[in-house]
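User: Fold this one for me? It's Aromatic ring-hydroxylating dioxygenase subunit alpha.
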Amino acid sequence: MSKNLKNFWYVCEFSANITDKPLQTVIFNEKFVLYRNRQGQVVILKDQCPHRGAALSLGWVEDGCIRCPYHGWKFQDDGKCIDIPANSPETPIPQRAKVQTYAVQEKYGFVWLFYGDLPEAERPPLPTNIPEYLFASSMRAAPHVDLDKANYVRLMETNLDFAHVIAIHRKSFGQRIPLNSTVKYDVDEQDYSAVAKFTYDSLSSSKSVLNFLLGGRPRVTLRLSFYLPNFTLAEINVGGDSRWAIKFAVLAGYCPIDEKTTSVKRILFRNVLPFPWLDKFFIKLDSILAHEDTIVIESLDPQPLPDVSEEIHVAADGLGIALRKLQQKYLAKGWSLEASEKKLPVSALHK
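Assistant: Here's what I get for Aromatic ring-hydroxylating dioxygenase subunit alpha.
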């Protein structure tokens, strides 16, 4: 049985990237085309013309509709063809001249695509407990994308791991964390998400590249969250409730191109040096730290996430275990996207 979930909202792209020019995205080897109609709403269609199979993402948007690049067939945002240039206006358009459409929402700077066959009233909600301070004027947001040769859930899990920083990030900032002390925390688990918090006093002997930002021996609080099926939030607070506290956070959508390739859409938030001209510096720093994770995650065998019983666990793995258990809960419910399930029921693909 596939361990990929259906009947959830998948992050698939940044909202800012969707314009009136068609854009292709790939989820589980299935191609989609995204664009904005005349009302500014995001439209998601299957990226395949029903006539000869051309990629609609190579076409163009006209009057809020998309034109096929091959023969110019014109499709509304409900997928219905309304014009075939090779036919006279009085010629009836074939009923089968229709493209599959997908439900879509925008929130937190991302576009979310519903991938499943549940009626609208029964679908899980988008995350509702993302902290509001992230979107305050004091926080600067810098989006960027990483393409990783690793399974999307494996990449999610490393962002839920409090203990990996002392090894993977030992040359950057991991040496600030005291060794030989138990990493133990409580996990607050909800229907589709979980969150945990861990606090420690950083070591003053650190030679971290972040020394110029952290300095001294401040108290550091990490708050990590995940939201099924492909969304995480990592929050870092240095200095507690002090008005001088340094805050970083990363919202990340892990878009599974296939079982071993993931496009990671990240938005890095910061309250330190919130100047637009410094975005490239902080994006580069975030990418370097993320790449430290990726080098190791790409080596994991197997790549698809094993069942809880198949690996060894310790107390520090609590949040990752919660992720696996929630996945198993919905897989047992029948919400599995089977490898043979290339096409979802048309009844599910409405707006």
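One thing worth pointing out: Helices lie at 152-158, 165-168, 211-214, 279-297, 318-332.
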